[in-house]
Amino acid sequence: SAHLSVYVLVGKESGRGGQRMAIKFVLLVNKQGQTRVAQYYEYKNVTERCADESEIIRKCLARNEKQCSFMEYRNFKLVYRRYASLYFIVGIDAAENELSILEFIHMIVETYDSYFEGVCELDIMFNVEKAHMILDEIVVNGEIIETNRTRILAPVRIIDKASKESLKAAMKPQK
């Protein structure tokens, strides 16, 4: 499976006046319920995380297109949106604005679309590290820190350029 999880361990308080972080996790899931990217900003043990993830995915995939794109789940909210064959699911604090998170999801999709030149599930599967890098440029410790697509993609493009140059140097015949 092309499933990869990255965990950013953080304290219970953020720079928001002692409030908890806004974003708890971001999941990218296909229509069959297979997780393609899982990025967590709050620690949970593996057993609890897997159980929650399965239930969250089931709940989101079971809803039809006419139903609202957000719902309450335990002590937080789920905001999700489907783009082609992928569901983008974001877990947020109960006090967070759902519509701003829908815009956040759209911004992620546009950024992936810009980088992958028409993103699809296969792009995410075969470049999961790039998908995580892009998310890491947008969200830190559950807080959105960057929304400018050019600034988000700049570090990823620098790594791509260095990788290409390194490959060229390795392929160059030795004298």
Please sum up the structure shown:
With 175 residues, the chain is α+β, with helices and mostly antiparallel strands. The chain has five helices and eight strands; from the N terminus they run βββαβββαααββα. The chain is elongated and about 65 Å long.
| Rg, Å, rounded | 17 Å
Overall residue-averaged pLDDT value: 87
Q: What is the strand tally?
A: 8
**How do the SSEs run, as a string of H and E?**
EEEHEEEHHHEEH
Order of strands, main sheet, comes to: 1-3-2-6-5-4
Termini gap: 43 Å
Major sheet: size, sense and barrel closure? 6 strands, mixed
Share of helix, binned: 40-55%
Query: In terms of per-residue confidence, which ranges show pLDDT below 50 for 5 or more consecutive residues?
Result: 1-18
**Pairing-aware structural class of the strands and helices?**
alpha+beta
* Residues in β-strands, percent: 15-25%
Number of helical segments with 4 or more residues: 5
Shape assignment = elongated
Task: Walk me through what this model shows.
The protein has 175 residues and is α+β, with helices and mostly antiparallel strands. Helices cover 43% and strands 23% of the residues. It contains 5 helices and 8 strands, in the order βββαβββαααββα. The strands form 2 sheets. A 6-stranded mixed β-sheet has the order 1-3-2-6-5-4, with helices on both faces. Helix 4 (128-138) packs antiparallel against helix 5 (149-171). The longest helix has 23 residues, at 149-171. The termini are far apart.
